């Protein structure tokens, strides 16, 4: 090969190499430009543009891995767009759940906050407080979510309190005062809960002291489930003119007056009262217990003070100074009150009773209920008067006239869990927690009106009463049975009574 040809061949090789390298350089340059563009698209969220370029770049640099990343972004973008579409269609839960699966993608985290906040506000405005609070708690630091949580807590507390208050009011209206009291006490200062709690306690006290049957001198009384009063016997002084009485929860009678306690804490009195007496009695309120003497009546107020009206020839109505009284009763012409610290207070013809009480004061400290009877000035015709006290341990104590054994309560028969006591003029009756009846004394002096066989057959007794020689018992079926002296048919007429109040 001559020199000229060799030079030409060399030049051709050089040109070829230049062309090859130039082409390779161009390809590399184009690929780099496309690679950079694809990365830019990926970073700017233009995933489909990036996908197309990375697909064409093949194995150039890390295009394969970036293509995989781009594909994942496209999938996440679809989820993201679907979530925003759900949000627009008010499908908040669905939108939030979808975004939570791509929490790190683009602005998904902030979108979760926005959607959760809007949903929580919507629930708040719809008064769905529990659900609203749940969502605000998830974004407690976002905008004013913490303020909304506080507002919800206040509203929920008020709503809960209102629901509890309404429940307590329902119990109160239904007469379930203990259940109502528990709720009102828990509510504290909410609305008028403290005032309602006081009314509950007043009504509980009223019911604890109430009597559904009573024995007067020539007549007997019974209280029906509807709060009406049944009578039997003498009506010589209009003491049985009670046909129009309603909503009564307790009754008592002794001489020529009948007194009834209404569920609203006011009283009715029947008998030949004068206008001044009627007017005075009509002003009594917040009464929790009532009692009738010979020609007078007394009433215990929920604040522990005592009202009285009627004949006061022996000072039996001088009770204005009494305080902290929890129970009252009357004899013929004396009144007795039991204070919250176990002290007995007396007014009227009660010299011998006061003397006996002062000699045994300490023994009365645990007394929770009292009953009294007898005590006419001559000391004989209706007994010299005696007072019986029921202790917290279910035992009984008595002072006063014991000529006929009416105070003989210190024996085994009277230590079997006594829950109620009643005194007649010459005798005392007790009711055990098992519903049995015990008795001591005589219905009428030197008579045999106490029927022990009948007493032994009395079972499941709910209330007892004693009067001028008659004993009444209220059975669990609402009927009344009796024994004793029956002047003016004060006993025999009760056989027609039915549906008496059984508590």
Record keyword descriptors for this entry.
single chain; 503 residues; alpha+beta; three-stranded antiparallel beta sheet
- Counted beta strands: 21
N-to-C span: 140 Å
Q: Assign the structural class, choosing from mainly alpha, mainly beta, alpha/beta, alpha+beta, or little secondary structure.
A: alpha+beta
Q: What summary fits the major beta sheet? A: 3 strands, antiparallel
Mean pLDDT, all residues: 90
Query: Strand percentage, roughly?
Result: 15-25%
Envelope shape: rod-shaped
> What are the low-pLDDT stretches, counting only 5+ consecutive residues below 50?
none
Helicity range of the residues? 25-40%
Question: If helices are DSSP runs of H or I spanning 4 or more residues, what is the number of helices?
Answer: 12
Gyration radius, in Å: 47 Å
Query: Biggest sheet, strands in spatial order?
Result: 1-2-3
Account of the protein in words:
By secondary structure, the chain is an alpha+beta fold. The protein contains twelve helices and 21 strands. The strands form seven sheets. It has a three-stranded antiparallel β-sheet with strand order 1-2-3, with no helix packed on it. A three-stranded antiparallel β-sheet has the order 4-5-6. β14 and β15 form a beta hairpin. The chain is rod-shaped, with a radius of gyration of 47 Å.
Topology:
Layout (H helix, E strand, L loop, with lengths): L2 H41 L3 H11 L5 H26 L3 H10 L6 H18 L3 H10 L6 H29 L3 H11 L5 H16 L4 E3 L3 E5 L5 E5 L14 E6 L4 E5 L4 E4 L4 H8 L4 E6 L3 E6 L4 E5 L14 E6 L3 E6 L4 E5 L2 H9 L7 E7 L12 E6 L4 E5 L17 E6 L3 E6 L4 E5 L10 H6 L3 E6 L3 E6 L4 E5 L19
Antiparallel strand pairs: 1-2, 2-3, 4-5, 5-6, 7-8, 8-9, 10-11, 11-12, 13-14, 14-15, 16-17, 17-18, 19-20, 20-21
Helix pairs in contact: 1-2, 2-3, 3-4, 4-5, 5-6, 6-7, 7-8, 8-9
């Amino acid at each position: 090969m001559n020199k000229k040809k060799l030079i030409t061949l060399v030049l051709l090789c050089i040109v070829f190499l230049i062309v090859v390298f130039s082409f390779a350089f161009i390809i590399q340059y184009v690929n780099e430009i496309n690679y950079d563009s694809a990365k830019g698209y990926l970073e700017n969220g233009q995933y489909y543009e990036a996908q197309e370029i990375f697909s064409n770049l093949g194995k150039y640099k890390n295009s394969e891995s970036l293509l995989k990343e781009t594909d994942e972004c496209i999938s996440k973008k679809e989820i993201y767009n679907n979530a925003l579409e759900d949000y627009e269609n008010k499908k908040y839960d669905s939108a939030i759940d979808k975004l939570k699966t791509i929490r790190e993608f683009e602005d998904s985290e902030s979108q979760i906050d926005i959607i959760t906040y809007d949903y929580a506000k919507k629930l708040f405005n719809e008064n769905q407080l529990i659900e609203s609070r749940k969502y605000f708690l998830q974004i407690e630091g976002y905008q004013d979510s913490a303020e909304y949580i506080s507002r919800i807590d206040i509203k929920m507390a008020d709503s809960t309190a209102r629901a509890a208050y309404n429940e307590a009011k329902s119990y109160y209206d239904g007469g379930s005062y203990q259940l109502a009291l528990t709720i009102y006490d828990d509510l504290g200062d909410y609305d008028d809960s403290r005032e309602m709690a006081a009314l509950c306690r007043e009504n509980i006290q009223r019911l604890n002291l109430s009597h559904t049957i009573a024995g007067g001198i020539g007549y007997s009384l019974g209280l029906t489930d509807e709060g009406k009063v049944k009578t039997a016997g003498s009506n010589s002084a209009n003491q049985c003119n009670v046909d129009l009485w309603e909503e009564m929860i307790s009754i008592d009678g002794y001489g020529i007056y009948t007194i009834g306690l209404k569920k609203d804490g006011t009283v009715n009195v029947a008998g030949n009262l004068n206008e001044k007496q009627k007017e005075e009695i009509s002003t009594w309120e917040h009464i929790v217990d009532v009692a009738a003497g010979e020609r007078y009546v007394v009433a215990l107020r929920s604040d522990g003070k005592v009202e009285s009206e009627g004949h006061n020839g022996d000072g039996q109505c001088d009770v204005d100074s009494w305080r902290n009284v929890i129970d009252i009763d009357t004899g013929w012409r004396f009144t007795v009150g039991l204070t919250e610290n176990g002290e007995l207070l007396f007014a009227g013809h009660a010299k011998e009773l006061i003397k006996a009480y002062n000699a045994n004061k300490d023994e009365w400290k645990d007394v929770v209920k009292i009953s009294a009877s007898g005590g006419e000035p001559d000391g004989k015709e209706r007994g010299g008067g005696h007072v019986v006290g029921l202790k917290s341990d279910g035992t009984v104590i008595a002072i006063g006239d014991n000529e006929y054994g009416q105070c003989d309560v210190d024996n085994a028969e009277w230590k079997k869990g006594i829950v109620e006591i009643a005194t007649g003029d010459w005798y005392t009756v007790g009711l055990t927690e098992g519903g049995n009846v015990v008795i001591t004394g005589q219905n009428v002096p030197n008579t045999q009106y106490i029927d022990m066989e009948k007493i032994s057959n009395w079972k499941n007794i709910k209330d007892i009463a004693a009067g001028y020689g008659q004993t009444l018992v209220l059975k669990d079926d609402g009927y009344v049975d009796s024994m004793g002296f029956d002047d003016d048919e004060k006993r025999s007429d009760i056989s027609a009574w039915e549906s008496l109040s059984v508590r």
